[in-house]
## 1
Amino acid sequence: MAAKQRRMVILTEGQLNIWSAKTAVSVMRYCPDEVACVLDSKAAGQDISKLVGTGKGIPVVATLKEALAFKPNTLLIGIAPVGGHLPKAWKKLLIEALKSGLDLLSGLHEFLNEDPDLAKAAAKAKRKITDVRKPPDDLDCSENIAKNVKAKRVLAVGSDCNIGKMSVMLEMNAEAKRRGWNAEFVATGQTGIIIAGSGMPMDRTISDFTNGAAERLVMERKNREILFVEGQGAIGHPAYSAVTMGLLHGTAPDSMIMCHCPTRKVTRHVPTEIPPLPFLIDLHEKIAGLVCSAKVIGIGLNTFEMSASDAQKEVEKTETLTGLPATDVYRYGAEKLVDAVEKFYGKPKKAK
Amino acid sequence: MAAKQRRMVILTEGQLNIWSAKTAVSVMRYCPDEVACVLDSKAAGQDISKLVGTGKGIPVVATLKEALAFKPNTLLIGIAPVGGHLPKAWKKLLIEALKSGLDLLSGLHEFLNEDPDLAKAAAKAKRKITDVRKPPDDLDCSENIAKNVKAKRVLAVGSDCNIGKMSVMLEMNAEAKRRGWNAEFVATGQTGIIIAGSGMPMDRTISDFTNGAAERLVMERKNREILFVEGQGAIGHPAYSAVTMGLLHGTAPDSMIMCHCPTRKVTRHVPTEIPPLPFLIDLHEKIAGLVCSAKVIGIGLNTFEMSASDAQKEVEKTETLTGLPATDVYRYGAEKLVDAVEKFYGKPKKAK
């Protein structure tokens, strides 16, 4: 998937808003050059940036025929419908897309490859269906070797799930590249994998192989200078901590960025109290250290719900509390966190 | 499986030794009343207790026909062959067993139910094939509700995998029952599940549902007075920590027994240094406490490789080091650890 230059039509049919079309919005924000157009008969012709706050200039069209005029090679399912199932009405369109020469890219729970009609149409048209949520068949147990590679490993951890760990790593990766690092963002969840064009759906691995799946992500990228690994869940999240643990030990980070949302007091989906940051930082270092020594070197704050002045105060308060550099990458950019990376590891080999 | 009284013929064909026939040995030790005979043409007629140190009086026979004379209703695969695959030569025998009215019980990686010939033979003979390693299809995320049940939850944790956590819980469960507790051993691995007749193969769950799978074990037994939950892996094991974490948060223990082998300096399978016990105890309490407050209340030592006097010294040394009661349940019984349980929770409702 990574080898071919993608040119995507993003299907959001009737759901082009920031909540339903989260995948579409993230892809438009982080891969604008790979988006040919959006297919949505309800929003056709509208200014997309006014609808979802990103994607300025990307055309919205009403039909597949119109979309094909923009010469896409891939159709991305841009929404996450309730239950993760493919709306029945869409299947006909997807078969048409395959017949028209498009590959399909999907993060749905329901695997498109397992639909006999779609699989048949893809085979006939010699097109590829990629279900990013499907893990490889040949995963195995971790051998504890990620810690031995030369690639530096920065892992996003957090005080909760859905707190912005992916965005922090994407922004840090972009900033590191600007400074000359041979860097790569390493995706561990569906949206990240669609953005990066590769990665591992960590939450769908067999538990015995969860650490091993994370390890593989590092081993496949061992010749990079530095890796920014997307986090998943949280060590303190009652439902997702197994996934988080596998990622933490499997990738064997030597540094971590702690992501935190100051306005959130309990964890999402399954509420439990979020402990104070200094406790969480110490705990993450102790747990990681069972396998590979690792330091939390900076704090990524999510101040989305705060005023500008409150956000600024929160940054200062967090830095005093933890003794670590803190910032909100959306408000202030990722410079401060990449400064922390360079303080910890030194400058890149080919610094710009 | 639990409802019907099992009467098992254990198949070990040519591998009746304590290494290859670990499943057979554990079942003979903990469920002697459910074992009709052992089927092994190479060991037929021999004194089984001399071969594997347990199972005194259990007959070893050479053929299925002889085994049927002992009126079994189930055939248990008693070995774990390399790779977890069923030896080809055994299939014919298993089909014969089904035809003769036996259910099949297997902990192999390779699911017998997925072999078309075996599935067909089972359907025809109206017999059941149970693959204990296959998790239920309807697992889901944890809702963090195990902590709310009245059943007390004791979880075995450890400084490593393969350290005796299952045995410690089985012995504690038996001792608690003797004292009048309405207790249940909760199995989380293949051998434990075969012994208990129920449980959850924690290492084969989808990672997103690992915590939820552990939670289900508790919810299905919420009306018990006390649960002794078999541990899996170790928080500090580089390959298995995701499974351990899911079990720790999903079952929401209020007390833990730390299992430790003093002669082991690095973890098994994938070596990494084992930290000192006081550090591990504190770390387990902190990690568990993210979801539900839990105390380590005793130490289960594995002194298998030590002399009697060294073992005794180790018990005293461990108690001084940790301030907690310590014992080796195989050498000295589980009384001391169940005393610790009663000190922590009080006496059972119907104390004997």
## 2
Amino acid sequence: MGQIITFGEVLMRISPRGNRKFIQSNTVEFYFGGTEVNVGLSIAHFGGNVKHITCISDDFIGDTAISYLNKFDLDTTAIIRTNRPLGVYFLEVGAVMRPSSISYNRSHSAFSEIKPHMVDWEKSLANGNWFHWTGITPALTQGSFDTLKEGLKLAKEKGMQVSADPTYRSGLWQYGVNSREALTELLHCSTIFIGGINEMNEVLGTNFGYTNDEFIEASKMLIEKFPSIVKVFDKIRTSINASWHKIRARMWNGEDFRETEDFDITHIVDRIGTGDAFAAGLIYGLQYYDDYKSMQFASAACALKHTYVGDVNYATIEEVTRILDGNVSGRFNR
Amino acid sequence: MGQIITFGEVLMRISPRGNRKFIQSNTVEFYFGGTEVNVGLSIAHFGGNVKHITCISDDFIGDTAISYLNKFDLDTTAIIRTNRPLGVYFLEVGAVMRPSSISYNRSHSAFSEIKPHMVDWEKSLANGNWFHWTGITPALTQGSFDTLKEGLKLAKEKGMQVSADPTYRSGLWQYGVNSREALTELLHCSTIFIGGINEMNEVLGTNFGYTNDEFIEASKMLIEKFPSIVKVFDKIRTSINASWHKIRARMWNGEDFRETEDFDITHIVDRIGTGDAFAAGLIYGLQYYDDYKSMQFASAACALKHTYVGDVNYATIEEVTRILDGNVSGRFNR
Amino acid sequence: MGQIITFGEVLMRISPRGNRKFIQSNTVEFYFGGTEVNVGLSIAHFGGNVKHITCISDDFIGDTAISYLNKFDLDTTAIIRTNRPLGVYFLEVGAVMRPSSISYNRSHSAFSEIKPHMVDWEKSLANGNWFHWTGITPALTQGSFDTLKEGLKLAKEKGMQVSADPTYRSGLWQYGVNSREALTELLHCSTIFIGGINEMNEVLGTNFGYTNDEFIEASKMLIEKFPSIVKVFDKIRTSINASWHKIRARMWNGEDFRETEDFDITHIVDRIGTGDAFAAGLIYGLQYYDDYKSMQFASAACALKHTYVGDVNYATIEEVTRILDGNVSGRFNR
Amino acid sequence: MGQIITFGEVLMRISPRGNRKFIQSNTVEFYFGGTEVNVGLSIAHFGGNVKHITCISDDFIGDTAISYLNKFDLDTTAIIRTNRPLGVYFLEVGAVMRPSSISYNRSHSAFSEIKPHMVDWEKSLANGNWFHWTGITPALTQGSFDTLKEGLKLAKEKGMQVSADPTYRSGLWQYGVNSREALTELLHCSTIFIGGINEMNEVLGTNFGYTNDEFIEASKMLIEKFPSIVKVFDKIRTSINASWHKIRARMWNGEDFRETEDFDITHIVDRIGTGDAFAAGLIYGLQYYDDYKSMQFASAACALKHTYVGDVNYATIEEVTRILDGNVSGRFNR
Amino acid sequence: MGQIITFGEVLMRISPRGNRKFIQSNTVEFYFGGTEVNVGLSIAHFGGNVKHITCISDDFIGDTAISYLNKFDLDTTAIIRTNRPLGVYFLEVGAVMRPSSISYNRSHSAFSEIKPHMVDWEKSLANGNWFHWTGITPALTQGSFDTLKEGLKLAKEKGMQVSADPTYRSGLWQYGVNSREALTELLHCSTIFIGGINEMNEVLGTNFGYTNDEFIEASKMLIEKFPSIVKVFDKIRTSINASWHKIRARMWNGEDFRETEDFDITHIVDRIGTGDAFAAGLIYGLQYYDDYKSMQFASAACALKHTYVGDVNYATIEEVTRILDGNVSGRFNR
Amino acid sequence: MGQIITFGEVLMRISPRGNRKFIQSNTVEFYFGGTEVNVGLSIAHFGGNVKHITCISDDFIGDTAISYLNKFDLDTTAIIRTNRPLGVYFLEVGAVMRPSSISYNRSHSAFSEIKPHMVDWEKSLANGNWFHWTGITPALTQGSFDTLKEGLKLAKEKGMQVSADPTYRSGLWQYGVNSREALTELLHCSTIFIGGINEMNEVLGTNFGYTNDEFIEASKMLIEKFPSIVKVFDKIRTSINASWHKIRARMWNGEDFRETEDFDITHIVDRIGTGDAFAAGLIYGLQYYDDYKSMQFASAACALKHTYVGDVNYATIEEVTRILDGNVSGRFNR
């Protein structure tokens, strides 16, 4: 397995314990995360060789972030340090009919002020065979968009696999670029699309619904528009409430449509990063398995992430495999 | 919105973390609450103008209690301080088939020794347009009953709205007064009845069952007996077990019977104060909405309270409104 | 009620908070447990007179263990102290489809090096009328097997009741003894069998399935083979996932087959020691009740244990009785 | 060593962590203590045979208190349970020039309502050879004074040693008895006086200063007035500030005056119960040692208590002995 | 006592427990502070009438900040809310020879983007008789400087007392203004100077040393240059190490030089905000006492602040007064 | 700077919070440490290139240990995993005159069962230029002694620097080897001796006292006996009590005797690993500085370690350097 490259902002997450709000707390817990590094850390935890590229504050908070990434044996050697602060987000974890609440302090962070010249892409991608990006990075600032674009172009030139998770968040994209145009440019460098109807509608300008037939039709249209893309993977979440979800996945790989059974996640511990756990499972799976089994692996990884507090999936390869083998009842051996 | 007056004991609640018993713990958490102040704090947290009248110990525990109330921007200027201790209750939060356990240390508290001359009701109600009381206060001591009675009489004279939540607890009423007679006297000063079949049976001396028809019949009888009362609101709780309840509400306003759909509260965090959250939602709602929408607002507030640890409802007006708008799946936007 | 004797290893359990893994933690909680002492502590907590015999380290960890047992007013006077360390186990509590994980450090513990001459069985059993053992003890070392055997023989001679819970764990039995032979020898000293199909198959060398008919057939065969055994009690667990189980029980007492209804344990707090809680409930129940009511008592005790963190059942006699009286909805009175 | 009897109120202490105030906290820690039970627990922890007699609430807080005492293997069989709450005190631990703050909620506690008929003194003192009392108990209520008096009279009749620690707190003695008269009556049943100039001045009505000469003179006068008393032990505390004290002791046993060197307690962890640790060390010491060595033992025990959080001295006999042997530099062996 | 006005940034402080670094932690504690609001909160805690003016994020972190200020009964009605995040700082508390470490994330905070038109100074100062400012505010941005300047000019016009604490931090003043010129302009609106030699040298362009004579000479020169200023108060800190300081104060009021004795702060809990506690004590004191006693009051308040974790001085008026009365040994009464 | 090799057991340390004993706790904190890995981690934290060689359990505790080492960017690629448990030690941190207490569970740990064939020394030392060992490793088992010996012989062959810290603990050395002979063999492969009079007396069989003259004489004798050794560094600790130490260092490098001034460590946070911090500082320092400055660096590192909880020195190169530059008063800049 060659080196997998992830690129994106590392954020410090600060959350009260359990389901408390900040207004009820004076003790909080912190984690580090960010959609792309979550993917990288999860793959590293499976044993993969992953390098994460980002820009981090040159203070003890930045040191702590790097130490956190090192725990997973992620390659942190290409990380840039500047004197801007690390981005922070505050999360209050909801329950039942109360959704989680989030507040960001990232708009002038170290990463948001990244510029293309700060990354030595040639060196960074030297041993890479896979590049993963998401729609968050181009949505932040012109600098982060340009830097990503430069990396993706080189990845394409080098013939790397490029997985795209073009998650769309309306609260971002504030700096003046047209989101569809930007994503279009980046998707032309990509080979695997990880996203659902919303994301396809966003980049295609369509209005497809959520049925499997529409998913297949949208996927075909996507592949037609972006010929470099060969496969589409979608994770479907059904929320009973903030504490109880169901998860399944479906795919179109140009030939076959497949879908998995539902995982019934009756007692969610933390849903942040579960989509990233799906992407990580998929990327890891595709190194070893066929498309369908990779999707199953990704679904199981995603389901397991709901049982870990924090942004990162602490599931091990053994835990995911045990579920793939049909052990979903949570019984333990001793 | 004029000033809402609440009157009643403030208690310090002490609870082990999670579902632990005291015998398993050496660290505990504390909160302040009490059925009437819970109502007041919840309305203040919605942005209402609320004054709470009570009697609190003149020590650092009393200082802490007042500081806790101030957090919510509740008007604490009418609070009396004496050298008796603050009442305390100990709560062990149950789970599944294990009920919560409670133990009180309140019988000689600062509040229990309140006397009518200690409250300047004229001044306290000067800007009030609503008075809320519960059946706990008259059940404590002759002094607390008398003090409440004096306040209610003035409220009636001033033409204030008076909401009554005559919760009946058999463990109280130890000081020699007949509970039905006492409540009857107080209900004659009241305009809104917040309670169900049990409370109506208690004050009417009847034996109605739980059907809607019986609820309507009981409400009519209540309104006949207490002509000042014009509306009856009832919250119905179905306990699957200590961790999983369903909540709905119904009302009779002299003309219409209405009921809400069930909220399915699959993962209860803390059920203390959920009835108070209903009362608070109702009182707040009735300032702005019609009876039915007020009851819906109250139900949503009550349901949300189950997701907050402590006695007080930390739900914001936005959170309640989002549920009224139909968003009950707990998904969060970012 | 005479004195109940339990004999077996006391382990220190170390667990992260909630559903965290060690790799996510730097604060952990500790408890003491072990299948036999869990039974003893639970009976002592019900108010029974219980003596636990074991071997514990002669250091501050051993002091802490004894202090923990003393909390329950268990008779600790027969406990032996040596300079070997106390056994430890590490537990990560799972959730939903993630099973709990366990890692033991017990193979050279104080208890594992126990030898028959170290226990004065005559004195230890002087006031005993019941002896409880499990399949863990003979599975550890030759010394622990021999010591147990000596105790059981004396118990048989003295005509004590002997309950056997021959839990089989394949990870143990590493020291060279044939497990079936060893258990056979010990079962010939026993009067009550607490175990299910798996345990009966293990000692009978059969291959029965899980139906009630097969349970009865296996029980009859067991009683035929071990004439000292007169009753068989079985607890059946259905795992929806690691957070949600159902529990029921069944029995054959030589004459009647009976089974209980399911307890639906929708929000598990900690499932460690729930089987021990069943055994404890059964032993306690059989001092006072008939077989069927004892089994009901045991089931309720077992169900309640799922709501307590740690290895020991903190349920009180009142809590169990309330459930026997049909109050399973977890409502609390105040 | 015969059984040592202690009699007095058990209080629940609730304190924020470290040096926080309640107003800064939402998490607190709880302990159980009370001057007489602190003495009993400390002696039990040294390995002594101690029975504590008290009256405790019949609820889960009372259960927790008894479980706490059982940890130390204290004999709790004579404890009375009533439906009054356990007394509580709140403590904020000071630092440097900030003194600790304390607030009591004990005036209608289970113990404060004790009456002589509730204690079976004959049975309770059956195996006793030492009775320890303090000036707190007679200062609470007529009932607690009368109950103590009855016990002391029987102790005197039986020829038991009786140690008196007549600590005087002006905030108590509110129920109408003259403190000097009450203490005088009790001291006439006592054999060992544990107290200093303030206490002697209080019971003698004198005005002695703090010099050694005055101490000797006061002691002589005390022994003359109370012929049953044969020895006087005094602990002298010098406060540099709330975090740094010096402790030494002196004695007059009718023949010799002796005093110890200062212990320099440069980093106090918790000073509550340090006087009780002195009394406990003295009582324990006097079972084995001469007066001077007992006083040294008591001083070392007292000094060590300053390093333990909570009311009880967790020092072991080995820790005290090591200091008696001259190892005061806190170096540890491994 | 009229209303005291404070104006400045409110920051969220995040710190690991005790002396841990972030790299050693996953749990942290948060507080709110900021040099000016620390002064305001401390005076409010003494019972003063204080209004704080600032600009805070319009999210749940901002809500939590306001709730925190409300605890102290500070007037928060003039606080502006915008959609920029609240400033944050991270603090690692040192010990012995290890200094504390600090990292700021405040450069694009809600407050840093304040502009003069956002504050209605006329309304804000309507009931004010004292305005307190520090050198932090003009050092942040042109907007914060301009807004402060406008407020101070109005304060001068209205004849309010204006206290200036022109703390100089070289890490600030990055936006292009000359610090001496800016401070000069602001000092011409001020009446009380709270600062030492460093601050006087900064604004005078002098190079005085730390002797009392030089302090007097510098003070005279300052008063000559800024005729509105009538008194100079200086707090002198001697650091033995990060855990042990000595504090004293000196003053020149145009006529007299006075200085206090040292407070020996042998066990520092938290030194953040101790300078603000001095300023608060001084402002509060000058409402009631003469200059010297006010300075003593301020010194005692400052000393006490070292014993409270967090930015705010939780000392009460009773605690400060007890020290003024000479009780510095930290003994407590009960 | 070439790669520094450390070899030795990694232990899990479990400690209650603050100065609590286990018997007072139910929550504890864990760390990883061990004298040699402490040295390695500290050097890695300074930025050095360090590889640690050890044998660790193949379970989630072992995974957690490796993740902990990775945080420091230590090279963990040569670590062996077996199915024996990781060694554990329990530590209760003392205060004032109470020493810390320690209890080990390491005698059958993964490392204790290491054998020479399990380590590929050729590969492990391929890039090494320094090897550090301590007297703990040969004291454990024959296997650990033999494995170390093999490594040291190769290191000597390769001409690497070898630092020896032959700490002598009488509680070890239980497996039958003569400690002096074993250490002698290992010292003949060493070039730097880190130890004091006790260690020199142990290996020389002498009886030198603690004066500087005797230190020089002993050092000369040591160098004569072990010609490979060229320098001796000694750290001298003066314990006022368990909370307050003084530290200084002295050296003999064959030519010069030098000693440092005392560091006065008035408020110790955690003294475990402070000797290892000295060794780490020395090894790091000797890569860049002369002997004397290296010793100063080592002393400052050692002093700083007393302010960090846990076994590892979290001091950064900047923190040590600041002290070398004379800033020992703990003032912080902002």
